[in-house]
Design goal:
Low-confidence stretches: 112-119
Structural class: alpha+beta
Number of strands: 15
Radius of gyration: 23 Å
């Protein structure tokens, strides 16, 4: 019975690790409203679990419910109404006097703990919503690699765009006809990416795929520039003085060339929790939440949970490297599920750049030019910018590809720390289990392992260049994991297959 599946989550709700609520549909779009703990307990006592859903701390734009067989049915692109945390926002919808209780348009400022020492440019966002292009990208990648037995992935069953009626209701960008000028611009941008070795994420491909999500043929959504141009002079005068507004608008329109299109995806997951959730509860020593998450995770596996995770992540890593895939998000640990599923669209095909010659000196030279010009508020020439983009793509792709094993493996430290916090026995040689599974399934072993160790020595350690290649946020992600990574690297070096 479905009630039994919800009962398995009760300890997580009572420890405030899961937030309960009710989901419904409005103009074809899933919406969600949290409920009180008293309301939740009353519903559970009455076996009234119809439309009962939950969200975790890391699900700021998603919720989930459970199916009859215990599967996690995740709706991505839903406003969970969770607070913004340490992200400062400026609510444009409120400034314009709009009374809406979800999907407000905001400018987000990312100067918080995840980005210590790094100022990320502000972004225009819709609270709780997912960019339709990102959802299509995730669906395409999951479908492409779903049959690889080494890579554990969730499954997307549906991607749909926000309906025109929903966008009208909440004052979001509307559907417009695609112009010939836009088609030419998309073709030009796609060609530029191909020259840099970016062989996925064609803008024209996304345009074709949009019609499968409910957007009519030859139609996209307004860009933010087009959207704000429809406001009255009075409304525009209100928002023009928002710090970083113009830059955020331009950057979002550059990044999402098909307009400000939003949607939802339905995914089947094995676990609703991410490594980032466990990091938070361990760092804050919230024992009840840590224990509830570990016990929930253990109930899915016959062997010790940490051993299961180690073996599965070892195979994931081998699968990624066999497919020439590189995890590209080194900014947080939210892309890794506690089920060891590889979540979201956080990986790229880097096969074209892997076969190119290393160019570290050229990369560092042009990187220095760009940074110095920025400090002196000077404009960088088009030639220097093109050279930097080319060499940067090659070297950062290689760094991410060969070093991702250290990021993947370091997630195990989070689970080990969780075990220690609640007094659970840590299984012996779980790191060896990861390494054994990785090497067992890795193709072209000697060449790949040699490169992994070379890049490990280059990027990590006292004089490591991780920040030079992957930025300050990557450096912050491994802060506190340095010794664990060094120990893992030496274990890998001592495998003895040479």
């Amino acid at each position: 019975m479905i009630i039994n599946q919800h009962k398995k989550l009760k300890d997580l709700v009572m420890s405030h690790t899961l937030i309960p609520g009710i989901f419904t549909e409005e103009y074809g779009v899933i919406i969600y409203d949290p409920i009180s703990l008293e309301d939740y307990e009353s519903r559970m006592e009455k076996h009234d679990v119809m439309n009962l859903a939950y969200h975790t701390r890391s699900m700021r734009r998603g919720i989930f419910t459970v199916g009859n067989d215990g599967e996690i049915i995740n709706f991505k692109g839903v406003d969970s109404k969770s607070p913004a945390g340490k992200v400062k926002i400026c609510d444009i919808s409120k400034m314009l006097g709009r009374k809406q209780d979800r999907h407000e348009i905001v400018v987000s400022y990312f100067e918080h703990d995840s980005y210590i020492g790094h100022k990320k440019d502000p972004q225009i966002r819709v609270k709780g919503a997912s960019q339709l292009q990102d959802l299509i990208k995730e669906r395409d990648r999951l479908e492409k690699y779903q049959d690889n037995p080494l890579i554990k992935l969730p499954r997307i069953t549906d991607v749909r765009a926000f309906s025109q009626e929903f966008c009208l209701r909440y004052g979001l960008p509307l559907q417009v006809t695609v112009s010939e000028d836009l088609i030419k611009k998309l073709k030009t941008e796609d060609e530029k990416d191909k020259r840099k070795g970016k062989i996925e994420d064609s803008r024209l491909h996304f345009l074709r795929q949009m019609k499968k999500t409910g957007i009519p043929v030859n139609t996209s959504n307004q860009t933010w520039g087009e959207y704000f141009s429809t406001l009255s002079d009075e409304e525009n005068s209100i928002i023009q003085n928002i710090p970083g507004f113009q830059k955020a608008k331009s950057e979002q329109d550059r990044r999402y060339g098909l307009g400000a299109s939003f949607g939802q995806a339905t995914r089947i997951l094995e676990s609703p929790f991410r490594i980032a959730d466990l990091v938070y509860y361990v760092e804050n020593k919230e024992l009840e939440s840590v224990k509830a998450i570990l016990d929930y995770s253990q109930m899915h596996y016959e062997e010790n949970y940490l051993l299961y995770y180690a073996a599965t992540m070892g195979r994931n890593t081998a699968g990624f490297m066999n497919e020439d895939l590189a995890n590209h998000l080194w900014t947080h640990r939210q892309d890794f599920a506690l089920s060891a599923e590889m979540c979201d669209e956080a990986y790229n095909d880097v096969s074209r750049n892997l076969v190119k010659e290393d160019c570290p000196e050229q990369y560092k030279h042009f990187k220095s030019i760009i940074e110095n010009n920025s400090k002196q508020d000077l404009e960088t020439s088009e030639e220097d910018m093109s050279a930097y983009e080319l060499y940067s793509c090659i070297m950062t792709d290689k760094a991410k590809f060969y070093a991702q094993i250290y990021l993947f493996a370091s997630n195990m430290k989070v689970i080990e720390d969780a075990y220690k916090l609640v007094g659970y026995e840590i299984p012996k040689k779980y790191i060896d289990r990861f390494i054994d599974e990785f090497i067992k399934h890795l193709e072209n072993k000697e060449v790949i392992l040699e490169a992994i160790l070379l890049w490990g020595d280059k990027l990590f350690g006292e004089f490591g260049e991780l920040e030079q290649y992957l930025g300050k946020r990557a450096q912050n992600t491994i802060k506190g994991y340095e010794q664990y990574i060094e120990d893992f690297k030496e274990r890998l070096r001592g495998v003895g297959i040479w």
